[in-house]
Amino acid sequence: MVKYPTGSVMPLRAAQRQGEKALLKKASFSDRGMTLEQQINESNQYYLDAGIAVVHKKPTPIQIVKVDYPKRSRAVIREAYFRQASTTDYNGVYQGYYLDFEAKETRNKTSFPLKNFHEHQILHLEQCLDQEGICFALIGFMTLERYFVTPASFLIQAWQNWKAAGKSSMTLAEIEANSFEIKSGFWPALPYLEAVDRIIADRKQEHGNK
Amino acid sequence: MVKYPTGSVMPLRAAQRQGEKALLKKASFSDRGMTLEQQINESNQYYLDAGIAVVHKKPTPIQIVKVDYPKRSRAVIREAYFRQASTTDYNGVYQGYYLDFEAKETRNKTSFPLKNFHEHQILHLEQCLDQEGICFALIGFMTLERYFVTPASFLIQAWQNWKAAGKSSMTLAEIEANSFEIKSGFWPALPYLEAVDRIIADRKQEHGNK
Fold it and tell me: How far B111 CA lies from chain A's nearest CA (Å)?
């Protein structure tokens, strides 16, 4: 189970934020207009402040071509290009476990198109899985306000099925059957570590409590 | 121990590179003019290709202000600034362990100035250590061609000693006494996982083989 801090041990910053959040309790997250990424970043900040986990979003990789160094002012990048990332967007550590995941949202209501993932992200998840990381996709059906932690093993299987048999999406029913659904909350916005706890528990059972 | 792949199971790409490296066997790394970062990146590529570990350098965080979208051409970033990273440069997963480290080089010969680290890097290492990550600094004395894996616990202690008592550097002798020295090799350039194996072994002993 996720260890929720009690009020007394919660760091000041988290406590202050929680106060702010309380004011928003009547508004749903979609009302607040938060993207999936914003919800995850807020959750990661909560987990970090509370000493529960250390998970960060990786910066966007940029190829820098030209930088100006104005006098008495900080450096300005004047020409740069977006590069394709070689990994997923998020990774970190939780109770000794390596976490690695990619977050994707869709406005679809009945299926998730696999083309939203890139080949290199699938490959990276496979590599991390081989090293015993806890790897998954965090999929948001934004119109439905439903969120799923889909283990990488299932995602990889669906990806291979696409490449081999042309099935280009995962249906909502398939995702429901092979994922842990998480309820969008208020603080943290997306308590995805509850799903991670279940992945860890499943793995321990498979490995005879190793 | 690090599991070195045999020739037969080594991926083609790694095998090809190893062939290329063989040609360079007579040149030392300093002759090749590799920075510490280049040596680590080459080592990470080796570990990745050989299926030994998945460790990547994080991209430099950039604050993007202005982007042009030319017709029939890719987006060009026209104004952006360097931001301070909130984490260390490297992290990844190795046999189920979360690895997190910062690499720093110096031309000094007798000590390493702590001002080369940033407060937020020390804080991040502390946070990851609390989550049972394997955390360290990879320190290169480039003039001496000596490389050390210094566990974060010692680095944090030295940092606190600086803040409390004004001792602004770690002497080479202190680093020798509290680190695992690694020999710059040819392939991988810096076999730092050998030191990680020793940190893991020490930890298992402390925790009664847990």
Answer: 30
